[in-house]
Amino acid sequence: MFTKFIAIASVIIIVLASAAGYIIYNGTFSSNTNPSPTPSSSNPTTSATPTTSPTLTPNPKATPTTSPTDSPTNAPTASPSPSPTPIPVDLRIDIASSLVHVVANMTSDFEQANNCHLIINSDSSSALYTQITLGSPVDVFMSADLKWTKQLNSSSRLYNNNYVNFTTNSLEVIIAQGNPKDISSMADLAKPSVKLVLADPSIPSGSYTNTTCWKIDSTWGKVGNAAYISNGSYVNYNATVHQNVVNYPLTVEQVVGAVSLNVGTADAGIVFVSDAVWGNMTSAQVQFMPIPSDVNTRGTYGIAAIGNTAQSALAQKFMDYWSTLAGQTLLTEFGFNS
Amino acid sequence: MKRKFTNSLSNKIIIVILGLIVLTYFLFIALPLAAVFLRINPSQVSSQLQNSQIIESIKLSLFTSAVATLIAFVLAVPTAYFMATRKFPGKAFVDTIIDLPIVLPPAVAGVALLYAFAPKGLLGPILNSLNLTIPGYTIAVIIAETFVASPFLLRSAKTGFESMDQDIINSAKILTGSRLRVFFTVSLPLAIRAITSGTMMTWARAMGEFGATLMFAGNLPGITQTMPLAIYTLLYSDPLAGVMLSIILIVISFTILIIIKSIEQKRFGNKK
């Protein structure tokens, strides 16, 4: 009798929890479910321009039911589209994790101005690249390394074969709260017993970090160099510094997190200048130390609309924003373009 | 006559529907696994097996999961025996707590371990005085795997000890006064199948541990980068290596399940 009651009660709880979850949840469950216009009708001008569009874009001729001349409002079959406030369309944006804060800052303004809803997915650029090559539905890709954008272009996955290098970012050292290992120079990172967190070399920040370590090794670490004379500890810098690494996280956000967590697992790490600017904006407990420009590495960011986007006009608008004065000012404010 | 006919027809329809559900379910599980195998062709296997990062992660996974299973065995089997045979106040509470990692999200386990074992964590002062640092070292992987995987052995062993015939145990206790002797000569052999399948379960779970290891131990090739972490790392830089490691883990999981199934079949006999 009692077990029966328990069983019935748990079934009721599960059903109620699922129902509540369904009501509360307002995200997108799977692919676009709202009756938006077909991809071919999203932008009338695209059919006119001789685009070398990727094979994934549906050809207007291939869909016999809709005429290629229809306007965006002319949705197939009877739909209540000519209402004064149309349903906001979703724009899916994949961003490198270093862009999280700057993109979050402009999201709501852009959404209101363009009656759209930005679905922002952040990860390392290399992870996003792989997801895009496997066909994940993305409208815009913002990469922390132009290399990935170019690679998508060479496999003709970009819309109109168009991409923009919209900003740059350099590296800075992040130091745990209270600076437990007294780090005041790049040489200190290679001191024994320093627990260092560097981004995995497969992601942009990690590959820039590697480049910087190599630069130090091959300039300051060479006999005759001014830095070598003043401080011999740059000899074999790249190898020594890598011996101190305790963790190679897979996004730069995780590097910041690992050093900021303040549980004693990390003494320092190498992150982007934008992370340092954000840290100072939010008065984080961690400290930051600039890396001299002669060994610093500047990464170029790329932005592009993805070939099978159903929202090419909107995607283009989002892309264009970052090249405007407002976009560039915002980026500079957040530590980019340094 | 007519009623019988409709009955058998409806039975057939139900069986067809059931069959379709089973087929859908089977494909739902099997197709993604097949997709992994189809990503690689046999000629690439040998070259992938020379990739040092793959080899290192395999070695590390085998080592850490073996040690974790051993620790789990030493801790969980006696605990299971105690929980199955003794009654004490608060038993239900203790039982629930030590079973918790089975349903606990691994990310939570990672956070919990970090705040317990990190140099500035709960046990930090003790560990620091012993000059011991855990996160970032192989021992952290072993701790994470033991934490997450040992309850599987505990549960299985507990069921084994609970299903022992108490008359046999009592007779043995009368024949020999030594509790330890009864445990090793009667209880343990009676529960050995449950313990073996639980151990296999724990080993497989330890081998597959990802979330807690990533958060607590970190991602450092050769030191804390186990096979699942290597898959996560390599998939974006060297997809084929990630696929290769996935295949190895699928094969290991498959083998372990077959062993467990054969053990359980012997334990319960061939039901027909």
What Rg of chain A, in angstroms, do the CA atoms define?
Answer: 25 Å
**Helix/strand/pairing category of chain B:** mainly alpha
What's the alpha carbon Rg of chain B, rounded to whole Å?
Answer: 23 Å
Mean pLDDT of chain A: 82
How would you sum up this structure, described in words?
The complex is a heterodimer of chains A (338) and B (272). Chain A folds into 2 domains: 39-74 and 84-168 and 300-333, Periplasmic binding protein-like II (D-Maltodextrin-Binding Protein, domain 2, 3-Layer(aba) Sandwich), CATH 3.40.190; 171-297, Periplasmic binding protein-like II (D-Maltodextrin-Binding Protein, domain 2, 3-Layer(aba) Sandwich), CATH 3.40.190.10. In chain A, 37% of the residues lie in helices and 17% in strands. Chain A has helices spanning 2-24, 44-48, 100-114, 125-133, 146-154, 204-218, 226-230, 237-243, 252-260, 273-281, 312-321, 325-333, and strands at 89-96, 116-123, 140-143, 158-169, 171-175, 196-197, 245-247, 268-272, 287-290, 299-306. In chain A, the strands form 2 sheets. In chain A, strands 2-1-3-10-4 form a 5-stranded mixed beta sheet, sandwiched between helices. A 5-stranded mixed beta sheet of chain A has the order 7-6-8-5-9. Chain A is globular. With 272 residues, chain B is mainly alpha-helical. Chain B folds into 2 domains: 1-38; 51-268, MetI-like (MetI-like fold, Orthogonal Bundle), CATH 1.10.3720.10. Chain B has 12 helices and no strands. Chain B has helices at 2-37, 42-48, 52-85, 91-99, 106-117, 124-129, 138-162, 166-175, 179-208, 211-216, 227-234, 239-268. In chain B, helix 8 (166-175) packs across helix 9 (179-208). Chain B is flat, with a radius of gyration of 23 Å. Chain A binds chain B through residues 124, 126-127, 129-130, 195, 197, 200-203, 245-250, 258, 261-265, and chain B through 114-115, 118-121, 124, 133, 135-137, 218-221, 224, 232-237, 239.
